[in-house]
Amino acid sequence: MRKKVLLIGLVACFAIFMISCGEGRLDASGKGKVDSLFLGISMGMEKKAFYDYCWEMNSKKIFIHGPTNQSVEYRLATELNSPVSMQFYPSFYNERIYEVPVLFNYESWAPWNKQFSADTLFVKMLPLFKKWYGDDFKTLQHRTMGTIYYQMKGRRRINLFIRDDQYVQAVFTDLKVEKEIKDKKPKSSSRQ
After folding, report:
1. Is 69 left (phi over 0), alpha (psi -120 to 50) or beta?
2. What is the largest CA-CA distance in the chain?
3. Are 171 and 158 in contact (CB under 8 A)?
4. Which residues contact 138 (CB under 8 A, 6 or more apart)?
5. Beta partners for 100?
6. Backbone dihedral region of 101: left (phi > 0), alpha (psi from -120 to 50 degrees) or beta?
7. The pLDDT of residue 190
8. How many whole angstroms separate alpha carbon 15 and alpha carbon 42?
């Protein structure tokens, strides 16, 4: 009986992982709301649902607390050539997720370990993102952040870039909510 419960749990975890790898794609017609992000988390997810979901995933030892308990951490153990830590915590607007910054770094990173630098990791992360979300990433040059790979599908924008020597960063944003927030900000006065 215990083996059967364990097997069902393993199958469920594998299914969640496989679904998360396929998330982010449009439906078969090429239309539809693209709100899926990763690991069962989506744009518009209610704050309480996010916390409940993370609590459940933590109890299953799939998610853990990130450094200083300020983020959620997931371990990419087999997807790349060496284990990678994935840390994330969403921004909420009207109690719903509208943006999720995500940091990726090799667990073996150290300033003297150049084979585990963000430059090396990025070369692996970009193909992985293309596998998960589609091959249609474009590039732009940012004056301070360098090259940013981005993709826009529906309301979802993904930015992927090298943050510093240690981290590759992805930022998932709901464009409609981002615009709503910007439209609500007071315009600065041009009086002198």
Report:
1. left
2. 77
3. yes
4. 149, 150, 151
5. 172
6. beta
7. 52
8. 17
